[in-house]
Amino acid sequence: MKRQVHEFRKKLNINIMSKANKFKMIALAVVTAFVSVNCDDNNNDSPAASANFSGTYVQQDQMARPAINTVFIASGTPKDNFNATVPSMMGASYTSVFKARLLALNSAYTTNALTQTADQLSGLLATDVLNVKTSGTTTFFDGTNVLTGRALADDVIDVELLLIFGGPTGASNPGLTKDNVGANDAPFLSAFPYLAAAW
Q1: In this structure, are residues 61 and 73 in contact, taking their beta carbons and an 8 Å threshold?
Q2: Looking at the DSSP assignment, which residues form a beta bridge with residue 141?
Q3: What is the predicted pLDDT for the residue at 65?
Q4: Torsion of Cα atoms, 144 then 146 then 148 then 154, to 10°
Q5: For position 91, what pLDDT does the model report?
């Protein structure tokens, strides 16, 4: 009998301690929640000041054509300077930089599928804007028209690789003229916003 009483008291103590621990944990959680969302009387609840748009603003990124700025302009100060250059000044300021990088990427470059020399392609790419043709075909490149705009389905990276590495017929350096990404991961929509919803 003594043993049974002892076992009963032991179980009772464990049960009471277990309930006490649960109560302590709940109390701790409530206190933590209260403290973490407590309002500080020293908060400044006044309305936010209006935005100040005075001063000089500089464009931080210039990337009309995907990958062009990334590949042809070195990081750091050169990229910052390019990004802040007005498009009408880009050709004069950066054609030689683009040409040097083009020839470093493809030392065998003569002309491309558009019959452009290194100077011509470099001049075209250095002015990093998307042209828009208001009449006729709008495409990044369809074999005839080039840089008359950009349709969502245009594979701009393949076009750029072809013009840089493909040579006069587009057949040179076959391993370098495609990124081997076949298509967008979801079909484009026929109405605005044209892109499929994010995952």
Answers
A1: no
A2: 146
A3: 85
A4: 90
A5: 93
Q: In the prediction, which pLDDT does 182 show?
A: 83
Report the b/e string of 135-167 with b at 16+ CB within 10 A.
eeebbbbeeeebbbbbeeeebbbbbbbbbbbbb
Which residues of the chain fall short of a pLDDT of 50? 12
Helices (H) and strands (E) in the chain, counts: 6, 0
The predicted structure's pLDDT at residue 132: 82
Which H helix or E strand runs over 33?
helix 2-36
CB contact set of 103 (below 8 Å; sequence gap of 6+): 109, 118
Measured distance CA(181)–CA(188) in Å, rounded: 16
Q: How far is CA 27 from CA 17, 24, 38, 67, 98, in A?
A: 15, 5, 16, 57, 67
Q: How confident is the model at residue 164, as a pLDDT?
A: 95
In the DSSP assignment, the letter for residue 197 is P
Counted residue by residue, the chain has a size of 199
pLDDT of residue 148: 82
What are the extents of the domains in the chain? 1-34, 68-176
Q: Return the exposure string of 91-128: e unless at least 16 CB atoms fall within 10 Å of the residue's CB, then b.
A: beebbebbbebbeeebeebeebbbebebeebbbbbbbb
Nearest to 129, CA basis, from 140, 137, 143, 119: 140
